[in-house]
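Model it.
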Amino acid sequence: MKRWLASDPRWYFPAMSDQMSVEAALREAITRRAEALRTRDIATLTELFADDFTYVNSQGALLTKQAYLDFIEHGPLRFDQQTTDELAIRVHGNTAVVTCLVHDTGTWQGEPFDAVFRSTQTYVLREDAWLYVAGQTTALE
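Modeled.
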């Protein structure tokens, strides 16, 4: 448990201060993931994803960590950019649930695409790092 000096304004609201640092760490993880997808940086994605990571894509396919990484590295999808809006972070102990809109641009099988998705991402704090453990994406039309 953190202890604050009475002169420190966080003494009155320690949970809010902790929440702000957790949200900053999660926002950083989300930003790093988006950049790693764009550059196909498999080492960074491997670091950010839990070993038991699972993902349900917008077509309903369930991917393991290895299947997801293989798809990003060798598949027909190339990201030019990924941005998030309407980011909402809810923290429950060592677990965080993130909901957001994801705007992707890039190419699919060589053809340009521009799409928006609703995404739910679950993170777990393990060994002082927020790891992405599960995700689900729904295409918006």
